[in-house]
Amino acid sequence: RKEVEQDPGPFNVPEGATVAFNCTYSNSASQSFFWYRQDCRKEPKLLMSVYSSGNEDGRFTAQLNRASQYISLLIRDSKLSDSATYLCVVNGGAGSYQLTFGKGTKLSVIP
Amino acid sequence: SAVISQKPSRDICQRGTSLTIQCQVDSQVTMMFWYRQQPGQSLTLIATANQGSEATYESGFVIDKFPISRPNLTFSTLTVSNMSPEDSSIYLCSVVAGGPVDTQYFGPGTRLTVL
Fold it and tell me: Which one in A33, A66, A99, B38 has a CA-CA gap of 20 to 30 Å to A24?
């Protein structure tokens, strides 16, 4: 069974804190990896793709370890607006558009 | 990215009835999908909506229950047939548009409650 596992949280952190989310996936054929953000009662929105070399977008850093089938997301200097559920997402293999979603990790940033 | 709209945004339906959900994209897209997100759960792919041919369904989903139309490259419908309370969920369409080749963007969703 193809699965994506995430710590459901919730993570309650103060503003300015650094928080890290982890994700493992079972499909070794997966080639594309993403973090999506989902606000309450809203649709998921792409936060960032995850590349083997690791990538950074402002306060957000994503890492991929293919050997361990492990993906991480680091958020630095947390803002109140970062409060959301973060979904780890992987595809079904090379050329596949089929995405498997984790159940998400809920983050609450507290004033 | 693409601008995606869905109708209706929400509905409350009686069991045994059917609801058709529309998904409209502001540009032509090749790949369009339908997902379901049950309460407290993550997204599950229902099917790939293929333009000009029958949709491709994932395991556990069948055409009789979830018929899909894709008459052109900007529009698709999903029907939830013979509804039961277990069908209460958010239904989302998504498209592959712009960005990395397999980046998916989601519509705002249709929140369905079946009584």
Answer: B38
| Residue in A closest to B30 by C-alpha | A97
* The two structure tokens encoding residue A34: 């993403």
* 3-class SS letters over chain A: CCCEEECCCCEEEECCCCEEEEEEECCCCCCCEEEEEECCCCCCEEEEEECCCCEEECCEEEEEECCCCEEEEEECCCCHHHCEEEEEEEECCCCCCCEEECCCEEEEEEC
Q: Which residues of B touch A91 (CB under 8 A)?
A: 102
Mark yes or no for CB contact B104/A46 under 8 Å. Answer: yes
CA A64 to mean position of chain CA atoms? 11
Say whether B42 and A101 touch across the interface (CB within 8 A): yes
Query: Residues A7, A101: contact at Cβ < 8 Å?
Result: no
Span A73-109, pLDDT tens digits: 999 999 999 999 999 999 888 778 888 999 999 999 9
Task: Give the C-alpha separation, B26 to B54, whole Å.
Answer: 23
B111 neighbourhood in chain A, CB within 8 Å: 41
